[in-house]
Amino acid sequence: MREFVVQQNQSHSVLITGSTSGIGLAIAHCFARAGHHVMLHGLADNETADALRAAFAGYPGNQGFSSADIASEAGCAQLVADTREAIGNPSILINNAGIQHTAAAHEFPSDKWHQILSINLSASFFLCRELLPAMRAARWGRIINVASVHGLVASENKSAYCAAKHGLVGLTKVLALENADHNITANAICPGWVETPLIQPQIEHIAREQQIDLETARAELVGAKQPMARATSPDAIGELALYLCGDFAGTITGAALPVDGGWSAQ
Ligand SMILES: NC(=O)c1ccc[n+]([C@@H]2O[C@H](COP(=O)([O-])OP(=O)(O)OC[C@H]3O[C@@H](n4cnc5c(N)ncnc54)[C@H](O)[C@@H]3O)[C@@H](O)[C@H]2O)c1
């Protein structure tokens, strides 16, 4: 019981990849609001980085920012170094950065395949490998991988994305097993459609193809897959991530949690 109280009030250092935008940014706000020290990260120019720092300046914890490109192993190592310098060693890692490209497998460009696999899957592995030894030594850690409903089911034209996200769910399960005896949990969050810039090109594509307005195209995109035809808010993913790092989630590990309006229940 004593341990419960201590953990509940503790501030952690949290690295959230891809937190300049969309889901990652919402997660960062949730953790900062809860008093944690957050490392912001993503591809951003100086102006955006400054605006981001200003937006987080009022929170009680410390913040840092890194623009390391995590498409390479060296970029991941750079991000870890930047994080340790800014907020200390993170005991919570949220692998969220991701990109998308849609094309049929028989026409899928090689460079896009490699990019998607590197950013959406390999970066998560490299960052976990870097950070796990300290979590294991401390006998406490939380890893959250923002996968996708496409880590559970497939859609046409998303071969690289589905391969990467299914891989990320598999990686999550292995990490959960390997670290269960060190009080480290690893879980995947599997969103369906979330209102972020990532889905904008797909909405615009439908609008162009069918010559309809963007709102109608958005409803069509979401409703085609989700029985609940509304996109999830990024904040909902942030709140779930926060819950998974709290004491009541201490035995949730190796899970792939859909937040998808019923998409994967079909
Ligand atoms: N939006 C959705 O509907 C949805 C649904 C399911 C899963 N997801 C997943 O959620 C995660 C976040 O998606 P989002 O919609 O918020 O995307 P987004 O485009 O709004 O943000 C992506 C973030 O990743 C960063 N990033 C991209 N490439 C990078 C690189 N090479 N190095 C460093 N940072 C890089 C960007 O700078 C940005 O901060 C992704 O993994 C995505 O696959 C999104």
TrEMBL record:
InterPro entries named among the record's database cross-references: NAD(P)-bd_dom_sf (IPR036291), Sc_DH/Rdtase_CS (IPR020904), SDR (IPR050259), SDR_fam (IPR002347)
Superkingdom of the source species: Bacteria
Pfam families noted in UniProt: adh_short_C2
Keyword Oxidoreductase in annotation: yes
Keywords: Oxidoreductase
PROSITE patterns membership: ADH_SHORT
Gene3D superfamilies according to UniProt: NAD(P)-binding Rossmann-like Domain
Entry EC number(s): 1.1.1.30
GO MF term set: 3-hydroxybutyrate dehydrogenase activity
Family to which the UniProt record says this protein belongs: Belongs to the short-chain dehydrogenases/reductases (SDR) family.
Protein name: 3-hydroxybutyrate dehydrogenase
Taxonomic lineage from the root: Bacteria, Pseudomonadati, Pseudomonadota, Gammaproteobacteria, Cellvibrionales
